Amino acid sequence: MNEIFDSIVDGLAEKGYAVADSFLSQAEVDAILATAEFKHGIDQFKKAGIGKNQGLQINEAIRGDYIHWLDKNTASAPAKVYLDRLQELILYINRTLFLSLKDYEVHMTIYPIGSFYKRHLDQFKKDDHRKLSVICYLNNDWTAIHGGNLRMYLTGETLDFLPIAGRLVCFRSDQIEHEVLPATRERLSLTGWILDQVADLRHL
Ligand SMILES: O=C(O)CCC(=O)C(=O)O
Ligand SMILES: [Fe+2]
What we know:
Residues 97-196 form the Fe2OG dioxygenase domain. By secondary structure, the chain is α+β, with helices and mostly antiparallel strands.
């Protein structure tokens, strides 16, 4: 895992983003897909909104995904494997980049067929504590024909990444605009943020 963590740290330091395949093994992905939450599908999830707390709005023209927040105290064992790995990554980033990241917040995510998330930045306004966005994809046998790319907008170029199982994408939440393109298959992921303060329980 240290090699993967190193490649993430290098990417973040040099470019503000990193992509690491096999952050979760095939068996770890399959175990998460087999958890009750994903088995029941979007019935157990709620429509994602835009903004925070009272300002939260549902807007299908901007984002069409469904989410289920994970609570580290009650998460299933397979989800906990992922959360613990994220915690290890935080410690690794802090040691190597001299940061003091403190915590994370993560939701399970389902994008139904044809849904998308238009170009945006993940930080809400100035008071936000989201420093790094981290998304781990859970889609077995995903290929370019399925669409669903994560598109990042960098200065002078755009980059596309397919949401393939086990892949982690991590980027600076305050700097990198990005969007999710529609897909011909349901698109599953664990979407999260690394914070510079302890997560509050606003989602749970
Ligand atoms: O699923 C992805 O590739 C990105 C999701 C995203 O941008 C978000 O939830 O803010
Ligand atoms: Fe985002």
